[in-house]
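Protocol step 6 of 9: fold each sequence in the batch and record its structure tokens directly after the sequence line. For illustration, a two-sequence batch is reproduced in full.

Sequence one:
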Amino acid sequence: MASPPYAASPYVLSLLLLLSIPAVFLLAPRLLPPKTLPSIPDADESDDLALFRRAVLLSSTPSKNPSFSSSGAGVFGRRRQQQPKVAFLFLTNSDIVFSPLWEKYFAGNHHLLNLYIHADPSTAAAVAAALTPSFRGHVIVGSKATQRASATLISAARRLLATALLDDPSNHFFALLSQSCIPIHPFPTFYKTLLSDNNKNPQIGRNRNRRRSFIEILDNEPTLHDRYYARGDDVMLPEVPYDSFRVGSQFFVLVRRHAVMVVRDRRLWNKFKMPCLMKRKNSCYPEEHYFPTLLDMQDPQGCTKFTLTRVNWTDSVDGHPHTYLPEEVSGELIRELRKSNGTQSEYMFARKFAPECLKPLMEIADSVILRE
């Protein structure tokens, strides 16, 4: 009995199946959303926005001298000081192993500084318990978990900035550091560098509100293209055109007006908080892009475009810089790390040091690190 004219033979079905496989591979990427890295939870975003609004509102409150005042109290009851303070912002996911060295660095200078620590929630209690009274660190309440290759590191830095803005109106400089950073000059040298930068820049004059931020800003980094498109083609447009995209170190020293600028921003943040594509995660370093791009777009003349934190990238592994080991620590190393490339101030901090370096660093703290 003959088969119906509309019945396809097994050979025809097999041929059609084989032909459809390439079509599936071609159409699937267009029909299915691309895989991305985890995004920031909405609850974290809401908490941050409330904090940022308070910080901006306080910083926008008019006063006779918005930067420094000899009277009045801060949000947490602190008296305002006439001298500008440095807010040291530690971003850590573990204990601050070099706190004994930092204690020596801060000794005798607490009237000129405040400390703020954003610790991973899993270690926050341990970090707080380990702090000695002389360290005087303020562990941020409401710290959120952070992870590499995500905008959570930007959020953590913004949280630190907002908290420091709220805590003390005398905080004028905001130095972001990690648990692997160490000082390589005594505090008075660092403080003098911050205050004297305007002497090198006549266009700023003696207006303390026009002092510059020390943040690295690069526009010719070899991986700039891959980093810009890490979230997908044209995703950054129109807010961040390619020609405006910048790269820089994630560690910086911002002046107060720039700290407020970062906390107030929504426009660029809506772009940089978008998760990177999973297939481009090796080019996803949002914390190295957001801050230099934002400041270069809004106040390029207000930035030195170099950082005060020395990092050794000569033998980086998986995106991490060289980690100094105990056998490398010496007075000669500290003096070498201080040197600039001739176009900027000497470096004030350095990273990345292994925890085991604490003992040899303490041995040369008084004779080298904290001595000019």
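Sequence two, same batch, same settings:
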Amino acid sequence: MRYFQRKIFQTLATRFIGDRKASILPLFGLMVILMLVISGAAFDVSRSINAREKLSYALDAAALSLATDLSTSVMTDAQIKEALTKSFRANLADTEFLEEAIENLDFIVDSNNGTVTVSASATLQNYFIDMGGYMKESLGPAFFAFGTSAQVAYSRFDVELALVVDVTGSMRSDMDTLREASESLVDILIPEETQEEDVKVRISLVPYSQGVNLGTYADKVKGDAYGYADGSECVTERVDYDDGTDLYEVKYTDQPYDYYDETDPPPMNVFYGGASWSCSSDSEMIPLTSDREELIDAIEALDDNGGTAGQTGITWGWNSLSPNYKDVWPADSAPEAYDNEDVLKFAVIMTDGDNNRYYEIDETTQWEETCTTKIKKNGKTKEVCTWEEVVAYVWDEEGEGVYYDNESSTSSRALCEGMKTSGIEIFGVYFGNNNSSTGAKNMASCASDGNYYQATSSSELINAFSNIAKKIQSIYLSK
């Protein structure tokens, strides 16, 4: 190209100097040179504008991708540069200035304001403007330099999310779909390549049916320290307690499991109940964690069993996010305080059916043996035992008809209102065709404004969970 330019210029110049036939020839030669310069300049300028647009597009894409990464995990400078470079190579693969743009990449992370500014520059060689090296001083440079920058916001917040899922018997044919949907949510919020210690999102998994399988945490919240645990890992709900002096209204709250300290020991009535052995043994609750592998393993183990006590799932979804239960879970799973302005709390609650179980504590009587030791006149001892009828309390499971204002559905909605009042944003998902069913109405009522989803097919349930994860990302990005 430069040889061709040089030959044209030399030929025109020679003709211009030697032509003495008419005065029009010098003017014609000058016009040819001018037209060539103008056309070539237009070509070079057009190339540079196009290159800058490509760089700008690639920079915007890289900055947005980086903002998402910074919102979910803590990144070193080297990791940031690697992420930007990877994005540039994907979006500028066919450009001649790729390597120079990568070399000139720069970024500034402002953690105080939650912004990241990314900039890059490159040069593009001119083909015409410098006329192959001739007249460079007067016609223009050999290169056009161009650059651009972009500033985007990223989330400075940590996220706590309770994933409350229905594993009742009616989900039997859809368990693979539920597993895939749950995994898709985890994939988005805790990407596969992130290190646990760098992740800013913690997720609890709360599978429910006729209660929640709390595993090793069950005995504690049932009052095992006072001999009240029943040996089952299945935990249900609790009731309000009247000690004759005060009424403790705790049923729809996240008051601690050991709130009552008026007597020692406290009565069984103040703790959580069991009365159910129908929790799925494989579907165990996982408290808040950033351990992606632990979550995925627990999701893959989900299995169905039992009827629907949705209020128990909501109860333990709330407790997994409540700072009042931080001494129940391991230290790494302890929820942050509600007034921590750097933490956002969410819950995703899903069902495919209607609530039909609730639990209450009943007063009964039982015979209790009391033995005392008496000393006889001869110095020997004798044990004397007597039996007497005493008041006792037992947890009972109550089946009920399916309707909007039954006990279990009323409890579910009351618990959701308490969660929202405490600052937890709720997403409700109904998996089924009947949007007028009790289950659908419960989920619509539980959901925060604009957060209700109905999924009528397997693909829609998977999409709903993925879209919720993306919406959560957009929420904490916008904040």
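Proceed to step 7 once all outputs are recorded. Observation for sequence two: The chain has two domains: 2-153, 158-361+392-478.
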